[in-house]
Amino acid sequence: MAIEVGSLLEGRVTGITRFGAFVELAEGVTGLVHISEVDDAYVVDIHDFLKVGDVVKVKVLRVEPGGKIALSIRQAKPGASSQRPRGRKGDRQLGFEDKLNRFLKDSEERLRSLRRSLDPKRGGRGSRRP
Question: Which residues form the S1 motif domain (predicted)?
Fold first, then answer.
């Protein structure tokens, strides 16, 4: 059975790393589900979503010439979009004005911190001499 891009398959999780999970498909072929393709929510620890031995439904994203296979659990779900939601958790419920205000506040804090680190230190050795 040839594995084709876009096909939905079932597989068993055979290994978990900090960057994703290895899933064994039919005929012993193994592919990788990158951590960003595990769930729509932001995944910090993949162990919160998967464990070795789980049977999962995956979508084939890429089959590279070297035999590497990229898989997605997130896109295999019914009605799933290939576009990943961007931004911070909770930003999807915020309006444009709220997002803009958050951005401006974060920018000001970063600038203030940068200015503090670049300002010459006052006093101590090497200060002005009379």
Answer: 6-74
